[in-house]
Amino acid sequence: MQENHETFTYTYSAQEQAEIRRIRDRYLPPAETPLDRLRRLERQVTRKGTAAAVCAGVAGTLLLGLGMCCTTVWVELFAPGVGVGLAGIGLIAAALPLYNRITRREREKLAPLVLELTRDADPPAPPGAP
User: What are the pLDDT digits (tens) for 76-128?
Assistant: First the structure.
């Protein structure tokens, strides 16, 4: 009869486990929280309006500059230069309403999704409130 003298030893280190967990978390794909998703949706809503407004503003500024050039450098193009300059001013003035309209339309499209994500985040109504 032979005796078995094998023993099992285990060493636990909380610091090592925490370090292992931190390293492992760097390699895991990031999990999107509802708040992250809401922030992404809000950026998505304003992105289209911002792009359209910036394009309108830049085009209007270029038209205004062309109109100014026509009126000051090429005297024979004074009347068309005034018209082009006024069109540029109009386009610059339309940039903000264009942004507001596009942003409002995008918010209306995404409103059901945002309300669904924030339904659980609403605080309960105080007693006696309508």
Answer: 989 999 999 999 999 999 999 999 999 999 999 988 888 888 887 666 666 66
Quick check: helix, strand or coil at residue 128? coil
Condensed to tens digits (0 to 9), the pLDDT of residues 49-62 reads 999 999 999 999 99
Burial (0-12, 13-18, 19+ Cβ within 10 Å), 40: exposed
Confidence of residue 21 (pLDDT cuts 50, 70, 90): confident
Widest pairwise Cα distance in the chain: 119
**Between the CA of residue 8 and those of 1, 3, 4, 82, what are the distances in Å?**
22, 15, 12, 92
Question: How many residues would you count in the chain?
Answer: 130
Q: What are the residues whose beta carbons fall under 8 Å from the beta carbon of 68, sequence distance 6 or more?
A: 81, 85
88 within 8 A of 64, measured Cβ to Cβ: yes
**Tokens found for residue 49:** 């309006």
Going by C-alpha positions, the residue among 40, 87, 23 that lies closest to residue 60 is 87
Q: Evaluate whether 65 touches 83 at the Cβ level (below 8 Å).
A: no
